[in-house]
């Protein structure tokens, strides 16, 4: 899944049943509109997961390697095996992004011996639903299945990634937690109207 789409960056995250090294292949969508035309292309770009160990949870940041308002094909590669192509479009450059507005807290994920976790967030309010944005809690940030998440709500964008997302009234954060071979869980958290937002504990059972 491609998330955190900005003008020059995005994040790809996925899970596999067996631990492997992860990377992605990506390129501008061909004029034919078919990503499969890139299968034999020598111009495809590759970006690897920055963690130097195998995992069932994969998280690749494409930072400052994309062009604004451009359509791309992308596919995951896990342990040398390529997944399916998907298409996403980068957004425009935003002139005046809103304040950071950090949403932070401890995350408890079941009772399994979790190694890595990807959190996928989206906000629903009177303004609609935001695009998905993420945080990675890797083994360096986990202790006894508890990790600390931190995301900037000011970076949330509209569902089409063309503008900043306005929190509106009565915002609720939906959280999907990917634990790889340890399972997946979801929960929702009402967002406090206080500023700054108080530390918010989240507990998810896979």
Low-confidence stretches: none
Number of E-state strands: 17
**How far is the first residue's CA from the last residue's CA?**
19 Å
In round numbers, the mean pLDDT is 91
Radius of gyration: 17 Å
List keywords for this structure.
single chain; 206 residues; mainly beta; globular
Question: What report would you give on this structure?
Answer:
- This protein has 206 residues and is mostly beta strands.
- 0% of the residues lie in helices and 47% in strands.
- It contains no helices and 17 strands.
- The strands form 4 sheets. Strands 3, 4, 6, 7 and 8 form a 5-stranded antiparallel beta sheet that branches.
- A hairpin with a 6-residue loop joins strand 1 (2-3) and strand 2.
- It is globular.
- The mean pLDDT is 91.
Show the helix and strand layout.
Elements: E1 2-3, E2 10-20, E3 22-28, E4 45-48, E5 55-62, E6 71-78, E7 81-82, E8 86-89, E9 102-109, E10 117-125, E11 128-129, E12 133-137, E13 142-143, E14 146-152, E15 172-178, E16 184-190, E17 202-204
Parallel strand pairs: 9-17
Antiparallel strand pairs: 1-2, 2-5, 3-4, 3-6, 6-7, 6-8, 9-14, 10-11, 10-12, 10-15, 13-14, 15-16
Structure at a glance:
The mean pLDDT is 91. The strands form 4 sheets. Strands 3, 4, 6, 7 and 8 form a 5-stranded antiparallel β-sheet that branches. Strands 10, 11, 12, 15 and 16 form a 5-stranded antiparallel β-sheet that branches. A 4-stranded mixed β-sheet has the order 13-14-9-17, with no helix packed on it.
């Amino acid at each position: 899944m491609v998330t955190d789409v900005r003008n020059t960056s995005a994040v790809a995250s996925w899970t596999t049943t067996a631990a492997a090294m992860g990377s992605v292949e990506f390129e501008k969508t061909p004029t034919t509109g078919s990503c499969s035309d890139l299968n034999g292309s020598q111009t495809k770009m590759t970006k690897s997961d920055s963690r130097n160990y195998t995992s069932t949870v994969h998280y690749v940041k494409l930072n400052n390697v994309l062009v604004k308002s451009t359509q791309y094909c992308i596919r995951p590669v896990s342990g040398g095996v390529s997944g399916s192509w998907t298409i996403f479009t980068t957004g425009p450059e935003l002139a005046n992004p809103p304040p950071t507005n950090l949403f932070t807290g401890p995350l408890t994920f079941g009772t399994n011996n979790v190694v890595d976790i990807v959190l996928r967030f989206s906000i629903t309010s009177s303004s609609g639903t935001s695009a998905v944005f993420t945080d990675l809690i890797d083994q360096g940030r986990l202790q006894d299945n508890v990790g600390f998440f931190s995301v900037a709500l000011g970076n949330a964008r509209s569902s089409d990634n063309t503008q900043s997302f306005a929190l509106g009234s009565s915002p609720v954060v939906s959280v999907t937690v990917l634990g790889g071979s340890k399972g997946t869980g979801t929960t929702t958290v009402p967002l406090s109207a206080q500023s700054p937002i108080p530390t918010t504990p989240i507990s998810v059972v896979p």
